[in-house]
Write a structure and sequence with these properties.
By secondary structure, the protein is an alpha/beta fold. It is built from 7 helices and 9 strands, in the order E-H-E-E-H-E-H-E-H-E-H-E-E-H-E-H. Helix 2 packs across helix 3 and helix 3 packs parallel to helix 4.
Length: 234
């Protein structure tokens, strides 16, 4: 049976974490799946439930509040640990989400590795502020991945110089329709769940919602979350 590695920073409560967890759960019915986190302490539990078939591995080196030299050393140690796992398990594919994990994936996949290296960028760097070092490193290293996955055509256009093989795969949503659910089209509730920070652009959502209310006064918007912009959003 083919083995797939999924690589991400943490499996906390987040959109990317939800997508990679559900994707891993789905693929575990066909393949031997391993989920590896590279920035989650052992005492922090996973937020999403994983299929019992999935093997869970944690690589963790504390990168907070340390100098640049120590940080580089510990990042190199993370890369070495991942390479050792690759050599031991011999996966056919490694799929990573988010910039830091993508860079670790690409660098660890250098030098005589036979698996496919697939990376997934979850934001548009032209609209979302990103660490300058990440921008430079992703521009340099993303081109060495076999496939770069993005969520929209707009992001693909923004990253067209990063990799020659860019594929667009939209976020999936769960099927919430059921036989016992009664729908009332007169009352429409829109629910947004996210961090309340600049990256999520809640203000754009609110400004857009003003126009929807003009067409239908029975529409309500619920915003659930916490973050640095909570007071301003209120």
């Amino acid at each position: 049976m083919k083995k797939i590695f999924f690589l991400i920073d943490t499996l906390g409560a987040g959109g990317s974490e939800r997508i990679i967890s559900e994707l891993a759960n789905y693929q575990s019915n066909k393949y031997d799946v391993v989920i590896i986190t590279i920035n989650q302490p052992n005492n922090v539990k996973d937020f999403y439930i994983l299929n019992s078939k999935i093997k869970r591995i944690r690589i963790y080196e504390n990168l907070k509040d340390i100098g640049s030299i120590k940080r580089i050393y510990r990042i190199m140690f993370i890369i070495k640990k991942l390479r050792d796992l690759i050599i031991f398990h011999n996966p056919s594919t490694i799929i990573s989400f988010l910039t830091f994990s993508n860079l670790i994936n690409v660098i660890a996949s250098f030098w005589r590795m036979r698996h496919k290296c697939i990376i997934s960028e979850r934001i548009n760097p032209k609209f979302i502020k990103k660490n300058r070092k990440y921008l430079i490193l992703s521009y340099i290293f993303y081109r060495y991945a076999d496939i770069l996955i993005v969520q929209s055509k707009i992001i693909k256009k923004s990253l067209h110089n990063y990799n020659k093989n860019i594929k667009v795969i939209n976020n999936h949503v769960r099927n919430i329709y059921g036989k016992n659910i009664i729908y009332n089209k007169k009352h429409i509730n829109i629910l947004n769940i996210s961090r309340l920070d600049e990256q999520k652009n809640i203000f754009f959502l609110i400004k857009t919602f003003v126009y929807l209310v003009k067409y239908n006064k029975n529409i309500k918007l619920y915003i659930i979350g916490d973050g640095e912009l909570k007071i301003k959003i209120n």
